């Protein structure tokens, strides 16, 4: 029996590839995006998300999986609104439908940036759902220039990865039969990074920040393959995992021993 899988950010890049793979594997892809998708939705707006859930429910009745992939990298508070709040709001809005499924799964696109140094105060504001404070704080970071503004992006990805691990074993998810995991891509070759990766200087910048000694830049399908697996029936026991698809950056950033004397990634 086919499964109904919601895919956000389905209009391009990783989300578009994930939607195609869902269909190729015999399931139904329900695409959400600002444009070029079955349902148009602004994932930075809670009301817009609530409306699209009603539309999806009316048309499909059930939802068996959510791939919350939509994201931005603007180095502004928009990253907080979409990458963190948008992902959390989307998953929570679809929870009533997911809880009716016999084999519900959620997969979220985080980032290798979740391993980079970031502003832990901003991360905590996000996790505490202090939306207005987080947005204002993010604006103050953006005003200090793109390098400091990048913290909006890295913090949004650190926060969503943390949220996944926080909620995975809870009654809301685990006890309801819903597995939830995330992927942490490294440098991905998409239309957004074409210009950056087209020059030696740009490649040095990208891989200087996020080295990828194994096969370099990812293709969108490299990430989509894992996302689609995570929401499939083949994933029977994995939950609360952040799977870094990054060509080796995680191993470099965190080192070989992640079991003893843990320390903050920001030290």
What's a concise summary of this model?
With 267 residues, the protein is of the alpha/beta class. 45% of the residues lie in helices and 12% in strands. The protein has one domain (4-246): Rossmann fold, CATH 3.40.50.
Structural features:
267 residues, alpha/beta, Rossmann fold, 7-stranded parallel sheet
Architecture overview:
This protein has 267 residues and is an alpha/beta fold. The chain has a single domain, classed as 3-Layer(aba) Sandwich (Rossmann fold), CATH 3.40.50. It contains 11 helices and 7 strands. A 7-stranded parallel β-sheet has the order 3-2-1-4-5-6-7, sandwiched between helices. α1 (13-24) packs across α10 (220-230), α2 (46-60) runs parallel beside α3 and α3 runs antiparallel to α5.
Beta-strand content bin: 5-15%
Q: H/E series, N to C?
A: EHEEHEHEHHHHEHHHEH
CATH class: Alpha Beta
How does the helix and strand content classify structurally? alpha/beta
| Overall pLDDT level | 95
Shape summary: globular
- The N- to C-terminal Cα distance equals 49 Å
Number of helices: 11
InterPro entries: NAD(P)-bd_dom_sf, SDR_DHRS6-like, SDR_fam
Protein name: Short-chain dehydrogenase
Organism: Gulosibacter molinativorax
Family: Belongs to the short-chain dehydrogenases/reductases (SDR) family.
Give the helices and strands, then pairings:
Elements: E1 4-8, H1 13-24, E2 28-33, E3 39-40, H2 46-60, E4 65-68, H3 77-98, E5 105-109, H4 120-127, H5 131-142, H6 146-149, H7 151-167, E6 179-185, H8 194-197, H9 200-209, H10 220-230, E7 242-245, H11 249-254
Parallel strand pairs: 1-2, 1-4, 2-3, 4-5, 5-6, 6-7
